[in-house]
Fold this protein.
Amino acid sequence: RSAGSARRPAVALGMCGGALSSWGTPWRSDWWTRSPQPHAALAELATHYWKLCEAMSLKHGEDEGGSDAAMLRYSRGRLDAVLAKEDMELRRFDGQAWSASLPTIAINSDDVSGDHVHVSRTIEPTILHSGEVLVPGQVMLANTPANEE
């Protein structure tokens, strides 16, 4: 190996056939380490922080009056405030009609059909900087029932 070559994590196939990093987590594009964008590291951190808040929300619920719910609301508010200082924001599209113009990547697009499709769940939020898409979000889609069109 030459002195200037960077060490990259080993990639292995997981039990489901998906690639795993050397840490055992699902492999994801390393766009943020190669990106010349100055806010790439903050965008990555914000995405992971947002996902942690989402997991806590599912576990503890947001509507509870306890200290966990209060801490979750405070943490989300702080995330929004920190991003606002850098003219960044997170956007989710849950419940909205899906179209190719949404700044998202549909991870299950093969599972839906027809013209009446909506975002059923945001997996990772879209990150905007100065109103422009910095990182497209990842979403799950579902067919919209006929009575909700």
